[in-house]
Amino acid sequence: MSSPVIVVFLKDIRSELRTRYALNALIMFVITTLSIILFSIGNENASQEVLSGVLWIIIFFSSMSGLSRTFVSEEERGTVMTLQLLARPLHIYFGKLLFNIVLMFLINILSVSLYLVLISSFIVRSYDIFALTILLGTLGLASAATIIAAIIAKANNKGTLFPVLSFPILLPLMLTVINATRLAVDGAPLVDAVSEFQVLVSYIIVMVTVSYIVFDYIWKE
Amino acid sequence: MAAKVTIAIWLTIIIVVAFIFPVVPSPEKWYEFPVIPGLEDRARILFFHVPMSWTTVVAFLISMIFGIRFLKTKSMDDDLKSVSSAGLGLLFCILATVTGSVWAKFNWGSFWNWDPRETSIFVLLLIYGAYFALRSSLDDEVKRATLSSVYSIIAGVTVPFFIFIMPRIMASLHPEPIVNAEGKVHMNTTMLVVFLSSLAGFTALYFWMLSLRVRAGRLFDVQPRQGV
Amino acid sequence: MTKALTFTASDIGKVFAGRTIISGISFSLQSRQSLGLTGRNGSGKSTLLKILAGVLSPTSGGVTLEEGGGEIPQEERYRHIGFVAPYLQLYDEFTAMENLEFTERIRGAGKSRAELEQLLARVNLLPRKADLVRTYSSGMKQRLKYAFALVHEPPLLFLDEPTSNLDRDGIALVREIVREQKNRGIVVIATNDQEDLQLCDSLVSVERPAAGSSEER
Questions:
Q1: For residue C95, is pLDDT > 90?
Q2: Which of A96, A108, A180 is nearest to A145 (CA)?
Q3: For testing contact with chain A, the best of C14, C50, C105 (most A CBs within 10 A)
Q4: A141 touches chain B (CB under 8 A)
Q5: Could you give the residue ranges of the DSSP H alpha helices within B21-111?
Q6: Do B7 and B65 touch, CB atoms closer than 8 A?
């Protein structure tokens, strides 16, 4: 007997694989955005600082494109009541959080790989810092975006509201990961980035904890 | 009635004092301000900009607290207090941002520099904007109250991150010697008195405006949909 | 297996957008009892049923469920409830069988594939078990909802317009399900259909809850 959290998670995965609702749009988004960036950089050598920031712009906007689907689709299809009959609110929340984490990981791996390959002037020297930054950044992004997605799913103007509500919340995370990425590009030793990682880890913990506390109020009618 | 008059007189005195007390290199008389190297007369902004920034933060916290209360009590009165406070917070935030920006132009030559404090007040502005955007996209008043309370809680917990990470990430332009993060005050006594009085005055102004808005809101039994 | 159940509604009220939709609804049901909720269209029958089933919060009053003398906490009540309504949606990108498997797994009902197939056979959907719900007619969807509601053999069954979208055979099936459920636990039906109301031991009018309570039939 698996936990309801896993069942919800697997249901969302299966549904996504079948409908390709978010995945297709996300992949196209990443490719399009990267193309635009490549085009605008051209043959210039953009600075490493700028390139570090641009990578996270792509990641941020792709998260805004894809992470609301898990809650919005339930509202739009009228299956919210169905889920309320089947499981406790927190089971639903953690299952969908897990889904968003996996989705974000897949898209970010794609974005980062393409970025490293296609933008030759962006060279990472400390891969340990870089990998950890991507990992923690993805977790932080998913945890903040998931709870905001739960909120906007209940409102009108979901599409525009999602980035509007998410951006202020995500700003501490974005600034920290961009900073850490710069350290990775500069070739700093792992210890130099410890304070950044501390911030990222506490951000993740705080976001998940707050979500755990408030989700009932969002979910219940 | 008495409150209104007192606050009006208090703030008028503050404003007058802030501008007419002379700034001299070595203050001897009680009504003289010291010269702060690099700032001189422009230091007077201290009496307005800082209290406004302080008030907007207080307004946010109070809005959040009433939001939490609403989640417990389900009373629309608590939501009214929450949104009224948020509206005032937005007002003071705009004032703080604008006064800060104009002053920055005079002092450092450009309107915006992304120093930690500037960025923080900007983020607070974004949070207020997001809060009202959320409210205006919800029609059901209970849902509107619930979700905006939840959002203010989520926004509230990210604030400590700003306080701690910002100064580390960027170099600061804000005058540290006088007003700094640890709260230690190195101000001359006269300045301190005027500053603290201004702080008290603005805070009182905020509370007075809040009570007005809440009373008006109760009378009409209609919450300002945009909240501002 | 079935312990003595008591389901109690105390002074339930719901206000929405300034309008009082329902107020003062109180009743108590024991195992093997059934209740009909009556009222004109738009009178709040569905609202009340949703509150009883735990998917909507009342503005005032509450619901308690006791089993064998001990109260079941509010957050656990969903395990004991089955719900069917025209506005209940299943996942139409999945097949009927997948919907049931999802329900079984998330509830931890402990039913085997064969048992789920039996359930589908009961509602005459076994031949279409591998078809996407998207391809189902409204009558088939309604019957699938019964299978969905009964996966975990709930002691409480809440039905909103139980025979909507159903043909004569479907209606007969529902009557049979209700009869069985009455033997096992409690049924609450919201409807205006006189024949459906025949299945109920007592009635509560949502519009005038004081009058017409517990009219014994």
A1: yes
A2: A96
A3: C105
A4: no
A5: 46-73, 76-108
A6: no
- The string over B66-78, giving b where at least 16 C-beta atoms fall within 10 Å of a residue's C-beta and e elsewhere, is bbbbbbeeeebeb
Q: Tens of pLDDT along B51-82?
A: 888 899 999 999 999 999 999 999 999 999 99
pLDDT for the residue numbered A133: 96
Query: Under an 8 A CB cutoff, do A81 and C105 touch?
Result: no
Q: Does B159 touch chain A (CB under 8 A)?
A: no
Chain B environment of A164 (Cβ under 8 Å) = 129-130, 133
* Amino acid B26: pLDDT: 67
Contacts of B149 in chain A (CB under 8 A): 217
What pTM was estimated for this model as a whole? 0.89
B55 contacts: CB under 8 Å, gap ≥ 6: B88, B89, B92, B202, B203, B205, B206
Contact of C196 with C189, CB cutoff 8 Å: yes
CB of B70 within 8 Å of a chain A CB? The answer is: no
Q: Do A151 and B123 touch (CB under 8 A)?
A: no
Structural domains of chain C, count: 1
Distance from B216 to chain C by nearest Cα, in Å?
19
Domain layout of chain B by residue ranges: 49-176+192-228
ipTM beyond 0.85?
A: yes
* Residue B24 near residue B33, CB atoms below 8 Å: yes
- Count the neighbouring beta carbons within 10 Å of the beta carbon of residue A92: 24
Average pLDDT score, chain A: 93
DSSP 8-state secondary structure symbol assigned to residue C72: P
Q: How many CB pairs below 8 A link B and C? A: 3
Closest CA in chain C for residue A92: C106
Contact C46, C85 (CB under 8 A): yes
Chains meeting B at 3+ CB pairs closer than 8 A?
A, C
Residue C81 lies in a domain: yes
Regions of chain B where pLDDT drops below 50: 171-173, 176-184, 223-226
Q: What is the pLDDT of residue B28?
A: 67
State whether residue A217 sits within 8 Å of chain C by CB: no
